[in-house]
Please model this.
Amino acid sequence: MPYLVLDKLTKRFGQWLAVDNLSLTVEKGELISLLGPSGCGKTTTLQMIAGFLDPSGGRVTLDGADLLAKKPNERGLGIVFQSYALFPHMTAAENVAFGLEMRSIPRADRDRMVKDALQLVGLGAFGDRYPRRMSGGQQQRVALARALVIKPSLLLLDEPLSNLDAKMREEMQIELRRIQRTVGTTMILVTHDQAEAMALSDRVVIMNKGKVEQVAAPQDAYDNPASAFVANFLGRTNLLQGTLRQDGGGCRIDVAGTAWPVAAELPAGPGVLTVRPEKVTFVDGAGVPGFVRARVFQGTQWLFEIQTDAGPLTVIRQHDGQILPAENERVTVGWRAEDMRVMAGTAGGA
Amino acid sequence: MTAVDSQNALSMDPAADTAAPPPDKPERRNWAPYLLSLPALALYAVLLVVPLAMTLLLSLNSFGFYTGIQDVWQLGNYTDIVTDDYFHEIFLRTFRIAVLVTLLCAVLGAPEAYVLRRMKSPWRGLCLLVVLGPLLISVVSRTLGWALLFGSTGIINTALMGIGLIATPIEFMYTETGVVIALTHVLVPFMVLSVWASLQRLDPQVENAALSLGAKPFTVLRRVVLPQVVPGILSGSIIVFALAASAFATPAIIGGRRLKVAATLAYDEFLNTLNWPLGAAVAILLLIANVVIIVGCNRLIERRYKQVFE
Ligand SMILES: Nc1ncnc2c1ncn2[C@@H]1O[C@H](COP(=O)(O)OP(=O)(O)OP(=O)(O)O)[C@@H](O)[C@H]1O
Ligand SMILES: [Mg+2]
Model:
């Protein structure tokens, strides 16, 4: 049985549709990431689940019970706010203790739990500090500790690690993952860091303009993007505009004079071909002709900018001793048919 | 004098986080700031420092019924005030009224500001205007309005007797109760404004955070909102206290000649008894008491909240 269900959740601010018919089911113990460009409605979605914003339409159920009927202080969720929202008049320790106090945990246990929580986020020595006297990353970790210490069954994390340095972020990611595994906490994580979403989540939700574009396991979304938007948003990708044709052999797409077979049945007309830069190779035979506009060495790999008739194309090749084309050299690039995705429509319509 | 007091209190507002960046190394002296503040400084000197100094000098002179003001330097006026029970009573009354008014303003004004902030857009502006409206009307006309309400045949007493709540009219006029009520009405907008300013700085998500941690709305108010607006309440209290302690028009009209406070006492010494030096001494003592109390409170607040709001 799904644990958290968002059913056609909608939020309007005046005429502006911030969240548009968003439906999502989350299993118990799952870690789901919300990904999407700034302003696509991620925070708004979390705020509706938390009860701070009233949805304009739709339902939310948690563990079978209608969540919207409960007041925010009765929902028992752990929340890390994008703006931290620490209590400025309380020390770090008092901030963390607040939720425990509300749960009437005895003093001695409370002190121990607060200490452990602060230790967990690497702030063991900062219990007496007021938020104003802490750095952004330290404040963010206090916010994380405050949400974790109450051991909620559902944790809403709005960019909880955005202000941490790379090392600290990695440690916190491992910690979140451990808590999710061992305690079985269900987590909804908003992040701008794709690597973080890919590394942590069981599934990612890619949102655009208040709508869900795709819900899938990270690798699935990366390999089989449901739309040109997803392909473009997740990692680098090449979008090539072409024309879809139906002939005797099935469906094909013409890109810069080369025809590629298309497995799916798509209507004839404009189509978009997407292929990841690391899947593109330099070939001798048939392919898309072009010339190398620039090449950049990136340590373990080479990055090529190829100008083709169908538009610019990015190619990533491993630095493994193979002979690679030089700048301004004429080349032909190609890829395996199973590495490309084809969608009807134009690239601009993503 | 009152207006200047309130501005001092405003500028000492501990919650106003105007943490100026550390000044650059003064390689070349920049005269612009000095020149720009020159007009204000001149005004300050001419309108405040000079009269104050003259009042101070005047308070050291002596006065005789037949001789008038004597150009001698002595502390006789001060010893008179310090040793005379009559003056004690008046100063004590002034202090009592100011404290009561401050408390009432805090109790009324802080919730008022909070409710105002929670209101939806069109009503909020409207209600704020209603609250601040009294500031747009002269103190004298407002106080005369209260006098009409308070009189033994005034609306309040007539109404209370009409519904049979009281048998004889309550004495409002010429009593401390009346003065306190009228002064509270006059001064509560200052408290609302001050608390309003600190509420504006409140992050609404912080209240949400408390809710999400399981706090009931009242607990949120008590544990999260109130502590954060305390500096606003305190700086509002300083303004109200200063204005109440040195108020003249309201005690003069509601309190009349019978119920004197420090400001009306000074006035009477100047204009009725013509004992200018004594009046000046009263004014100076009032000023000193006011400054001592306000600066003391300010220190206390700053020390208490330095860590938190800086
Ligand atoms: N109170 C509000 N009134 C009007 N519009 C709002 C309000 N809050 C958010 N919006 C709008 O709703 C949209 C979604 O906002 P939201 O905060 O959910 O974005 P987000 O996905 O969290 O973005 P970010 O990644 O930058 O945090 C934005 O376009 C924003 O301008
Ligand atoms: Mg956001």
User: Anything to note?
Assistant: Residues 93-309 of chain B form a domain with the MetI-like fold fold (CATH 1.10.3720.10). Residues 94 and 261 of chain B are 5 Å apart (CA to CA). The pocket of magnesium ion (ligand 2) is lined by residues A 42-43, 82, 158 (CB under 6 Å). Chain B is about 70% helix and 0% strand.
